[in-house]
Amino acid sequence: MKAREYEEVCAFFENSNGGEAEASMEAVRSRFPHISVDTLLAIDSQLHTRRLRLSHHKLRQPHLVQQYISRYVEGEDILKISSVYEINPCLLARIILEHLFGLTKHQITECLKDPGCLPEDIVKQVSEGICISSSSQSSELVSAGDMNISLQTRTCHISWERLHDDLYKCMDNDNATSPYIELIRRVTGIEYEAHLYRQLKELGISFQTENDLREAGFSKTPDVKLDVPIAVKGRVVNWIDSKASFGDEFNHKNQAELQFQRYVNRFGPGMVIYWFGFVEELDIHPDVLLLDDFPSKQDIYCLPSLCIEPIQYLKSKLDD
């Protein structure tokens, strides 16, 4: 994909960001019918993640956290709160678990993976009905978790059932930071690595996986190290890295390029496959070939293998 077209896709997504996710995707697909759905989804996901990183500190400002908690303890639906403040539901759940119940980051991560993993003391509190005062302009202060929040004297009731259901709501309705999404990304990456292994085996190309290299004592390794170099489209390839993402300037030039250079320094020239496409103008490194799919058999040249042992071959030549 050319850089200009990529910018058009990004702009279209940004302008459609206010609408429903499905409707926005349909509009983008209609505007760019020649681009695969997987590629469009990858671009949209990466843009959303980038926006989240940029706004993360703003969404955690103390006065906003106070408002989130105030509305939540007053009984407002957690998804409505996330919509009003344009904050991802799972990020809002993290803030509530941290500041309202005093959970650690590790505990919060485990709870979002499985709400049944709430610590026993929290389960006991909410099972009995935890009473928390709601925020106002009052000067009275009561500590909630690790944060001081202004409170009124009237109290609100948060039941175990509500907290449990709200965590599931957040997980089910968050298309960017939900543990479900993280699992999908991880599994997708593994599936494409497995696909790469199958392609190499079908061609009889001997290789070592990332796990093989780590067991041998290497660190920061590519997904595949070829035992014997191959040529792809006239370029020498010693290693291959699999990326189940779209290669744009941010995640390639600003992040991955240094990683690939380390591979070049250690193993020589190699190849990176961005399975969901990449910006063509980024393919400028003389020792790192960028592709959006496994190369065809016609584009690959493998060194011929000897039919006899090398030592025997040399001896036969000397005898001649």
From TrEMBL:
GO cellular component: cytoplasm; nucleus
PANTHER family xref list: CDAN1-INTERACTING NUCLEASE 1, SIMILAR TO CDNA SEQUENCE BC052040
Keywords assigned: Cytoplasm, Nucleus
Compartment annotation: Cytoplasm; Nucleus
Originating species: Ceratopteris richardii
Organism ancestry: Eukaryota, Viridiplantae, Streptophyta, Embryophyta, Tracheophyta
InterPro entries linked to this entry: CDIN1 (IPR029404)
Keyword Cytoplasm: yes
Protein name: CDAN1-interacting nuclease 1
Pfam families: TPD
Coiled-coil regions, chain positions: none
